[in-house]
Write a structure and sequence with these properties.
Elements (H helix, E strand, L loop, with lengths): L3 H7 L6 E4 L3 E5 L7 E7 L14 H17 L6 E3 L15 E5 L7
Antiparallel strand pairs: 1-2, 2-3, 3-5, 4-5
The protein binds adenosine monophosphate (AMP).
Length: 109
């Protein structure tokens, strides 16, 4: 499958990985929108939140707990978690991922 984040997960394309286990990978965004901008993605190819199945419940839970762990590891006092869904939702890469953003004061959404 010709998917950028699948290739990053498999190590076929280089990335600045900050976390990896058997289910998830996290790496620095190549075009950071904040001082800290980490992407957390399942290794399994899921196109977007729209494509989630009941069987993905545990994986999605792990996605959020991993974001929390990375925030703790980076000693972040406050942060924003974002998941873009579909083109109209700002999603560019069609492989589900969570943005962890921090480092600048963020206004309310
Ligand atoms: P989204 O708009 O939610 O699909 O976010 C995709 C994100 O992937 C953007 O913030 C891009 O800067 C980021 N991105 C694209 N290519 C790479 C790459 N090779 N390594 C790391 N981040 C990337």
């Amino acid at each position: 499958m010709d998917c950028l984040f699948c290739k990053i997960a498999k190590g076929e394309i280089p990335s600045a990985k900050v976390f990896e286990n058997d289910k998830l990978v996290a790496f620095n965004d190549i075009n950071p929108k904040a001082k800290i901008h980490i992407l957390v993605a399942p290794k399994k190819h899921i196109e977007s939140i729209k494509h989630l199945q009941e069987s993905d419940k545990e994986l999605i839970s792990e996605l959020f707990f991993t974001a929390k762990k990375l925030a703790n590891d980076n000693n972040l006092q406050g942060y924003r978690l974002v998941i873009n869904v579909g083109r109209e939702g700002g999603q560019i890469v069609d492989h589900l991922h969570l943005h962890l953003l921090s480092g600048d004061a963020m206004g309310a959404v």
